[in-house]
Amino acid sequence: MYLQVFSAGGRAAIIFVIALILVIPACGEILLSGRILDENDAPVRDARVTLRAAGAALATSLETLTNADGAFTLELPSPGDFLLNVEREGFYPIKDRPMHIENASEVTLTINTVHEVFQSVNVAEAPSPVDISQTSNTERLTGTEINDVPYANSHSLRSSFALMPGVVEDANGGLHVNGSSENQVLYLLNGFDITNPISGQLQTVMAVEGVRSVDLSTGRYPPEYGKGSAGVMAINTENGTDRFHFTTTDFIPGLSIQQGLHLGNWYPRFGVSGPIVKGRAWFSDMFDTEYTESLVTGLPAGANTRSGIAVGNVLHTQVNLNQSNLLYADFLVNLDNECRVGLGPLTPAATTSTVDTREYFVSLKDQAYLGHGVLLEFGYAHNEFSNQQTPQGDGLYLISPLGQSGNYFVNARQTAARDEGMTHVYFPQFNWMGSHQIEAGADADLRQENGDFHRTGYEVLSVSGQLLSETLFPTASQFHVSDTEFSSYLLDTWRISRRLQLNLGIREDRDQRVSGLAWSPRAAFSWSPFHSNRTRISAGYALTHDQVTLDVLGQPLDQVAETTQYNADGTPAGPAAPTTYMITGPLALPRATNWTLNVDQQVSKSIFASAKYLRRRGTDEFLWLNTLAPDAPPSLLPLPAGEMGGAYQLINLRRDDYDSLQFLVRQTFTGQHEWMASYTRSRAITNAVVDPNSLQPLQLASGFVPMPWDAPNRVLGFAYLPVPGKRWSKNWSIAILGDTRSGYPFSVREPAGLVVGGVNSYRYPLNFDLNIALERIITLYGYRFALRGGMDNVTNQANPTAVNNVTGVTQFLQFLGDEGRHFVVRIRFFGRAGSRRS
User: Is there a single domain that holds both residue 463 and residue 390?
Assistant: First the structure.
């Protein structure tokens, strides 16, 4: 069964491609071919190789990008003397290397990785982003940017994602890529899926210093990626080299003086990388810990803080079995214990929970270069998750217009595992009306969940304290669910000419629990309309799908809720009505159609501007519809109350629409300094009543309504620049982040839970953050340090995170949870002083 990944059509297509490769000879008179490798002999993909005649202008150069095995080919018009350049973001470039070429030649070149921002004195500018070989709609955060920009919670890799204009973070820490839910994005670690199979969310915690880059692909992306209709977030870790390297950050604990002197938030991280066997095997290991203690104003002393402690470790290794066979292994562990989760102005300590989470991940990938441009990758990964939520007591949870009380009603333990196997094949290039690079691959996942739920119940009270309804969960539930996924894909990268490239691909997905196949055609083009090659126009279409999360499959096996309505005199209005869930009939995989258009312009050598349009239409998204009351008015209770209870059926009725227009300007300088400014106009709407605290919507809206994370206007900019003046510019830098967006929408409800007016028809105030920091590089006793001091939310903008949205109370529409101004100190240690020059 596992071998039946490709359909008959897919197998026929691959046989046809192989036949073409065998019968169509390469053409061209003088060819320069070769491979670009890093210092560990691993192939470097998407490196830009430029060749120009000695003494000729750059505009007359020949250019290409390396493929997955680091290979490239350039066809020369005539023999002669040439200058060769190789550039790839995150690597030291090769500049103007002289070459004399008479006949067909083959070269192997090595470019070195930039491992630490302060390890280099002179890092060249990033390669031009207007190269037509880049057809995907991709945003990249380098490890340098993640460590330089002063975003809030700068220890958190998740929080850094919001440095990309299309990503916003809600008050609960949820990530939303281009208006999507968090479970509509595929999250990868070194090529393997690390999303929590229960919720589809990113649970992994990693130290930011161990990350080489984060690549976000949206709208159009290769068919290699699926299981995320809104995009792919790929996290790539650092590699070790033949030199040992140490780093540590925030190793001195901080103090807080809010309501007395005590230990503040502390995020020490320690990293080491180097050789296992010089020239053959390397490792990179990053250990991080997080101690947090946050204060919630407006609550009594002793019951106004939330604390937590988390530890994590990521180990990445590479072993070169021989020159053409590389083996990669990763091991990750996360342990996290959080107390008083949910503490807020309207949710006191008694209503909170203790949450204990665990994650273990191990992967093994073999990459074999078979010669003649053939690269084979195959790998396996195992991922385990556990989550335990324990309330402060066994009392009922009380939902009141004046705030919540009692004990939270969810007492649960969930465990899950994913086993993933994958294989990718990159075939040799061949020529036919241009050059073709064929890729094919397959993936199989086995996912399992065990659930153990012991919910108590909750009561809904009026403004005067009168009991309106009571929901109880009389019987505990233990269950097991599993699912198997298969996928395969085929991609042709067709370089028609020096100024035009097409990417044509097809992907198939099948899910054991959802009938039928889901096909995903992908098409994109990239065109340089002018001879200067400073302008690129790219566009594409992609049909993408979401994976089926295990919480959806387990819902019918979960506890049954029984709700009793009460009269004004406190007597029951009738018998308790049960709420049940069922999955019947055939279902389709949720999908989205994506249309994108990009215009990129190289304004000068170091300034780039872009305009991007994205249109996504999500259809067949999952929704639990109450078949007993499908037209019931929207409610904001955990379970919408009703005299008949609920018989919820899973259907493909949810629709999500997203449109965005983004403008961006970026300038890079010699060294790690740069600045970026962007404006995004967007719209994220849905036909479902989506609660940001609940992963699965339970009701249809009367029409399309804004998502709870809809932000129509956003201006985002950051800069990391040298301090002006010769005396200061060498060792002093200033880091700035400015982020302004529309306030998120919310609904107003009456005490019984029903929405008053339109769903999400109100909004929080404008959200504005201005963070500024000064950084000083010092050398002490032969060791290098970076000292940073700064301030988050310099203007002391309120930026509230909660609101009293219940009518009939004196605090109605009062915003709560002000952000406040924060002072930030960071100390980084980089080991022995030294520099590497380009």
Answer: yes
Residue 21 lies in a domain: no
Cα separation, 443 vs 485, whole angstroms: 8
Q: How many domains does the chain have?
A: 2
CB atoms within 10 A of CB 70: 23
Q: Give me the half-sphere count of Cα atoms (radius 13 Å) on the Cβ side of residue 822.
A: 23
The boundaries of the domain holding residue 68 are 30-113
For residue 674, list its beta bridge partners.
668, 720
Which pLDDT tens digit goes with each residue over 663-676?
999 998 876 889 99
Tokens encoding 393:
């007591």
Tell me if 8 is assigned to some domain: no
In percent, the amount of the chain with pLDDT more than 90 equals 53
Q: Which long-range contacts (CB under 8 A, 24 or more apart) does 690-693 make?
A: 690/181, 691/636, 692/170, 692/171, 692/172, 692/174, 693/172
Question: CB-based contacts of 22: which residues, under 8 Å, 6+ apart?
Answer: none
pLDDT, tens digit, 9 for 90 and up, residues 524-581? 999 988 887 889 999 999 999 999 999 999 999 999 999 999 998 889 988 999 999 9
Quote the pLDDT of residue 281.
94
699 burial level (CB within 10 Å; 0-12, 13-18, 19+): buried
Which residue(s) pair with 770 in the sheet? Answer: 738
Same domain for 388 and 450: yes
Q: Helix count (H) and strand count (E) of the chain?
A: 5, 54
Helix, strand, coil percentages in the chain from 3-state DSSP, rounded to 5: 5, 55, 35
- Are residues 134 and 128 in contact, defined by beta-carbon separation less than 8 angstroms? no
How far from chain centre, in Å, is Cα 650? 27
Closest CA to 592 of 203, 13, 177, 174: 177
Helix, strand or coil for residue 447?
strand
Q: What CA–CA distance (Å, rounded) separates 161 from 173?
A: 11
Contact (CB, 8 A) for 502 and 494: yes
pTM of the model: 0.88
Contacts of 810 (CB under 8 A, 6+ apart): none
Least confident of 12-16, 136-140, 252-256, 376-380: 12-16
Helix (H, G, I), strand (E, B) or coil at 50: strand
Question: How far apart are alpha carbons 783 and 516 in whole angstroms?
Answer: 61
Q: Are residues 503 and 627 in the same domain?
A: yes
Among 151-160, 202-211, 391-400, 826-835, the minimum mean pLDDT is found in 826-835
- Unique residue bearing structure tokens 């300007």: 665
CA torsion sign, 122 to 123 to 127 to 129? negative
What would the two tokens of residue 250 be? Answer: 């925030």
- State the Cα–Cα distance between residues 552 and 838, nearest whole angstrom: 52
| Of 279, 273, 193, 289, the residue nearest 232 (C-alpha) | 193
Sheet containing 80-87, strands listed edge to edge, beginning at the edge strand earlier in sequence: 62-65, 48-53, 80-87, 94-101
817 DSSP 8-state letter:
-
Gyration radius of the chain over CA positions: 28
